[in-house]
Design brief:
The chain is built from 6 helices and 12 strands. By secondary structure, it is of the alpha/beta class. The longest helix is centred in the middle third of the chain and has 15 residues.
């Protein structure tokens, strides 16, 4: 059954993004400019920490109707927060060793003018996300490029089986209404469920499988 979707104007989206930025405690809305064209949001201005740039981007993505976000916010560190690339690299290694769910030995860390680039291979999506989360909040960081690759150790058939078993175990999903397809390390979810919560839980179950690099959630919600 097709689901009707509301088409929102660029002006409505701009208004909501500005409101969401005011609601976000980590940023000052007067620091950030917002333009919208064809439901693509562009953020401009400058902030004094990379965490603020990231928080503004997250806030824009939360707004209904946004297709994509171009984050052109510039990070200008105050003199007191400036650190050498060597200091940032050393701090990144220490932070990853103590707080991330991935061995730092599996990663290559490069820092250039405060911009951190992460490379390497991991088995789980959460490890890739953890590594970026830990590094992005370090003092002196002006940006993060997360080029970590997820390398599946399971065959597509084993991956499909593990996801289907996880859906059956979950109290939040009706596994009979969900079909799982696997293409390499990419997972496609299809079928019909009863609620948005059930759709999100199915995606969470798919992401929890080792080696998954992307989840295309095509599940429909029955009305």
């Amino acid at each position: 059954m097709a689901i009707a979707t509301e088409t929102r104007t660029d002006a409505q989206i701009q208004t909501d993004v500005l409101a969401e930025l005011k609601w976000e405690p980590r940023v000052q809305p007067n620091e950030i400019g917002v333009t919208v064209k064809d439901r693509v949001v562009t953020l401009t201005g400058w902030v004094d920490a990379y965490t603020k740039k990231s928080a503004a981007e997250d806030a824009a993505h939360r707004v209904h109707g946004v297709r994509a976000v171009a984050n052109d916010i510039e990070v200008r560190l105050p003199t007191s927060a400036e650190r050498t690339d060597a200091d940032i690299a050393a701090a990144a290694v220490r932070a990853l060793e103590s707080d991330a769910g991935v061995s730092v030995n599996k990663l290559n860390i490069t820092v250039s003018k405060g911009w951190v680039t992460l490379k390497g291979d991991v088995e789980w999506q959460y490890q890739k996300e953890d590594a970026e989360r830990v590094v992005r909040r370090l003092s002196g960081v002006t940006g993060v490029s997360n080029l970590i690759t997820i390398r599946p150790r399971l065959t597509p058939w084993d991956l499909k089986t593990k996801i289907e078993q996880a859906l059956v175990r979950s109290a939040e999903t009706n596994a009979l209404g969900i079909r799982v397809e696997v293409d390499g390390s990419k997972v496609i979810l299809k079928g019909t469920v009863r609620s948005w919560t059930e759709k999100e839980e199915a995606a969470r179950a798919a992401w929890s499988a080792p080696g998954v690099s992307s989840v295309d959630n095509r599940i429909m919600i029955a009305h």
